Here is the input.
Amino acid sequence: MSATRAQPGPPEDGAKPSGEGARPQRGGREEPAGGMGTAGRSDTLEPPEPWCLRETGVDRARLGRAESLFALSNGHLGLRGNLDEGEPRVVSGTYLNGFYESYPLDYGERGFGFAEDGQTVVNAPDGKIIRLVVENEPVDVERGTVEHHERELDLRAGVLRRQLRWRSAYGHRIEVRTKRMVSFLQRSVAAIQYEVEALDEPLWVTLQSILVANQDERSGGEDPRSARAIGDVLDPRLAVGGDRRAVLCHATKRTQLSVASGMDHVLDAPGDCRVSLDVEDDLARVTVSTRIEPGTPLRLTKFLAYHWSSRQTVEWLRDQVDASLEAALAEGWDGLADRQKRFLDDWWERADVELDGDPAVQQALRFALFHLIQAGARIEGRAIAAKGQTGTGYDGHAFWDTEAYVLPVLTYLEPRAVRDALEWRWSTLPQARERAAQLDLPGASLPWRTIHGEECSGYWPAGLAALHVNADVADAVRRYVHVTGDEEFERHQGFDLLVETARLWAGVGWFDRVGTFRINGVTGPDEYSALVDNNVFTNLMAKANLVAAAEVARKHADRAAELGVDEDEIATWERAAQAMYVPYDDALLVHPQDQDFTVHDVWDFAATPAEHYPLLLHYPYFQLYRRQVVKQADLVLALWFRGEAFTDEEKRRDFEYYEAITVRDSSLSACAQAVVAAEVGHLDLAWAYLREAALTDIDDLHHNAQGGLHMASLAGAVLSVTNGLGGFRDGDGIPRFRPRLPDPVRRVAFRLTIRGTRLRVELVPGEARYVVEDGEPLTIEHDGERFEVGADVVARPLPEVPDLDPPPFPAGRGPGCLGPAAD
Amino acid sequence: MSATRAQPGPPEDGAKPSGEGARPQRGGREEPAGGMGTAGRSDTLEPPEPWCLRETGVDRARLGRAESLFALSNGHLGLRGNLDEGEPRVVSGTYLNGFYESYPLDYGERGFGFAEDGQTVVNAPDGKIIRLVVENEPVDVERGTVEHHERELDLRAGVLRRQLRWRSAYGHRIEVRTKRMVSFLQRSVAAIQYEVEALDEPLWVTLQSILVANQDERSGGEDPRSARAIGDVLDPRLAVGGDRRAVLCHATKRTQLSVASGMDHVLDAPGDCRVSLDVEDDLARVTVSTRIEPGTPLRLTKFLAYHWSSRQTVEWLRDQVDASLEAALAEGWDGLADRQKRFLDDWWERADVELDGDPAVQQALRFALFHLIQAGARIEGRAIAAKGQTGTGYDGHAFWDTEAYVLPVLTYLEPRAVRDALEWRWSTLPQARERAAQLDLPGASLPWRTIHGEECSGYWPAGLAALHVNADVADAVRRYVHVTGDEEFERHQGFDLLVETARLWAGVGWFDRVGTFRINGVTGPDEYSALVDNNVFTNLMAKANLVAAAEVARKHADRAAELGVDEDEIATWERAAQAMYVPYDDALLVHPQDQDFTVHDVWDFAATPAEHYPLLLHYPYFQLYRRQVVKQADLVLALWFRGEAFTDEEKRRDFEYYEAITVRDSSLSACAQAVVAAEVGHLDLAWAYLREAALTDIDDLHHNAQGGLHMASLAGAVLSVTNGLGGFRDGDGIPRFRPRLPDPVRRVAFRLTIRGTRLRVELVPGEARYVVEDGEPLTIEHDGERFEVGADVVARPLPEVPDLDPPPFPAGRGPGCLGPAAD
Here is the structure.
């Protein structure tokens, strides 16, 4: 908590950085791009606390990660954790779910069916900024001396707090205290409470509360995982203001989406203030100048409201913004904060995961759950993007990760959000049907990556060919319906999704000479292979998809008739599912990831230097694809998602085989490895991977948290507990548990809500305890034993775990290799 | 030969198109893009003549093809067959081999090792243009009335002649007679002789002889086979002129290559002329105005000279241009034309292929040989591009086609050109070694497409992955050395090429558990498959490459030591060659194109409408790659190139199997099918494919001749005769023949020069005749019988041919389907 030194910026306005402030702050720890082992909890992150994430000081080198970690959102409106004064910043972000711009995709050589346009999330007008000038010196963490700087993300309050004690080069001292919130209840509203206090002497201060459009963007360079910079995309349409309120209206250039953004202010000042308002096309600014005495702070509460539409006029949108601002003013900061807290109390009651024995993991799990509800709470017709609303990584696109990782968590905690997310998928079926037709395929082909529903992947072998996304969505539909009993959704949106994806599979695969159903030329989850035949994960997921479609088609005959599904078609789906090819290597006694995988040579891990990870940034796909090297769980994901297709012995052998060649260059991998490691009995590994999944963003293990948080990995951390330690599976209607408790963990507790019943599962050494916290009794299965659980705790001994030797790992890529640096 | 009507252009200068001229000329025959069966010999091409290609009229819809057919070049300098007056035109082209511009390649999503820059042939300053104004009316085939228009490409003279009889809207009649030549002897020089004559009355005429830089380009749109438009690429550096000479100097913007272009003129005028000269940065113009009487034409002889360099200053280049112009003036048109004729006499003596029974094919074969010598005669350190110097198709890049198709012809006819072409490959080894290192491969990785040596493929699955290019180059080296006995080349350039490519294969392939050598994840010749394991063609070509490298490494121990080749490395090459995997389908009793090819489903040809060919313009690679559908001979190419690896029975079965699934969407296919059809005994098919190969460009069977002629197909036509009808193979040192004479052919004769001996092979019904026309006696093999041939004809009966039923074809894609329209 000692005073840290500010990093020098270029002197502006003739201001000189103070002599001491001229030394860089991060102490010479350089972070190599894509390297390994140097990331980790930086000096500025404080030791873990159970219900908050706290940072002191300003780590200039990790500022982007902090912007992601401290992001606030409600699924509809997201604000990155930028500093109040707006700079320094890595990426300034204000995101409205579904508000995007498109741009033409270029290719070295174009081919038929290549995606035509990219889509990228737009940085909406930024209302987070409140600049402060003290005695004519701008407050800036890179000038003067930062005596104390602290930010605290309160996971129960849903508020980001900040405290800054700062001394100007001339010696004036002030303290700034701010709170920031994106309301879960008033979905279009965010609020900031800003207090500034003079510490030693009366000071003249000026606050500039800003709403600015078309902020400078920067490109992510060559890293394919980052976002594309496409310049100013917002055309000004209307700019109005009066008193302390201003509203700006803009429209995107290509997609022609309109947005209205507004701010209003409540001023709580100890004395007279001069207040002025400027309104320009791309800037609105309320300026407050006054003299403050020590002990009597100046407080400004700023309310922000955003509305956007593809159809409404800017006039109407402007009215909505004014209405939202009025409602926010009426409720006030305290009212909003109170309801925010109650919303989260309710969430934590349903969702909390307790883990004793590792405070960092306990914190990380709650951090994960907080960001998951932030990502999903109010999406209402839009997608949950891979980064939620925490950054522009992957251009703000949604991928299969949402259905495969995020929804399996939310289905048991916040099913309304899952229905919303799946309704979004359903709403994109017209584009997906059109895409399928273009590709000469029946049914619908859901996009690999998109915001609005059109395929935006600019690299088809890892986009279009990764058809498993369709089965992943179908699986999420099946799970949602099964867990909630939402028959109405099953009949309508779910039905359409299941049928159209099943049709796709029927068209993609074929019955060979001996009647086996084969799916050739696709790409599975592992992005270090592509265009393979009979990827086991894909085939098994497609099989489940076909079965699920056949079931609903028989169940809802009227809907089947409506979509033209006849008995022949259903029979074909059933026959394809029955005859689905699952390759097996009889020599190695393992399942190959795809038909030819195990007859490829194994990547030379010993010859691969540590700094060459992630491999995709240092080797061509050509070399990766033709070798046995796995970026992320693929066959192991099949062992988890489609466990019914494998014996316990197969699972163990397969898991160990793939451990030796899996490099975890994707954040989607660790949790899957944790879950299957736990199942087959590698408890040390399970724990190591659970930790890795949980700490992915907080410790920036993949060195790209600045682009936004990895929603799937956050969800994966939770799944590592429920599916991994809890051994929870929900395949056949009865929740099944085969719990595991690795050594360092003294207690784990988690909740699942199934058809309205909230079950609590608690694991302590030697024992698993089940109890229904809310709702009707529930039949469950513990290690093969089936029994009913009600309001009384039922305890069972933990199943035996075999004593296994740890499998080999790729040189330098074993568990923990992604952990924080040793320094 | 009747007067044709000009097509209306937009009236300019107040000129009105004549009433009759307002009707379009092509009579309503619309050419659908990529369709089938509507191409063909247009009205304007005259019936075939043995030694020339003649066109009458102007076919506006096929103007681009005519520009390609009538292109002149010497391998160093190329002029497209644009009309003298410059317009109408499709693509104006003046090409200097190796003179190119680069541009950044963009990608929807970039990956490691993706080619960074594209390269494209530059349209050098155009000196072909001579515009004519008659009594203030510009002569233009789209205005007034074209009473007669005729162009004649004289294959023995190496001259393009043109005759235009034209009547202005006002009724003035003139005749223009021009001759154009690109000198084979004066490599930097082209010349045009332009005569204009008044027909009925004295007329005032003005000639404008033009040299113009940065002409308008047009993009080829979405067709991946066409060139990219990158705007004006020539920066002016110097523009000087005096009297009737002007020289312009330019430099390309990115590649910083300098070019000097100049023109000078000899005027032969019946009376006084007013002559003026304009010189601007991008334009030089000599204007001649005079009054001419009927019977006394005005004649202007224009000499053009070009020099370019990456190192020399524009001043020096300008001096070179002046020197070249002086030399051309000194020799004069007649001197240049005389030496041109003698050069070609010599060529035809070595190269002529005679074929009685089909005048169109006879003409096409000579047309092919003429364009092959045009493409190769004076390359001297540069490549032979896929289109030679006839157009900008494929951006002017060289591909494997050159080594696999063009050089196998030229090796026996013009070995000097082959040495030049292979020296160019050798000169790019530094780039290829760097590329290999980038890809984590040993040796050198030659580019899929390039002008300057760097990989320019913007789609890696069909670029980088098509590693067979390396073995194709090695094969051309082996053949050249073998046929010429050029030991000095073998020791140096050939050695380097063979060793570095063998090293690549040793690094790409691997010995599996049982010691088999496998090459995974590559793309073979067939572009409707990609990233396959153990492509038979690739594996067999790599095997030959490894064997050839081992042989030269043992032979030239000093060079081996210099490159660090030790006994272990040689032994590894030999072991890999020995253990090379050649997959075989035991159920179907055929060789799969690659390991998994025959377990894919067969493309649904019956459901594919005719207008969906070529498939690559109507279906995604995703669908093509995962099905049995063959764009172009691949396994069948292996049957031809590596025939020693197959029994006769295997060849027949394989050929027939692939006939059923080969759609010939590539012009590289027909000739290979012709050769193998002849070998296995399908003589009707052999003849049909030979015809198709021969007429590819003249009849525009692939609908893209406007982008330039298909050099590989032109060579393929010749190979269809020598390797197909002649059954010629040169695998083991003794030229072997197994001749076939299909019904329509009454006589075939061709020549091969082998180690200085020119052998003539003549086939007539029932008999093959062999004679040495020049040089020492030669041992040859006829149908397994070995004997010596000298100056006396040795005759042998043609081998028996089995009586085979024709195999099935893909619906609508059998032989002849690409033929001219029935109308």
The domain at 52-338 of chain B is CATH 2.70.98.40 (Beta-galactosidase; Chain A, domain 5).
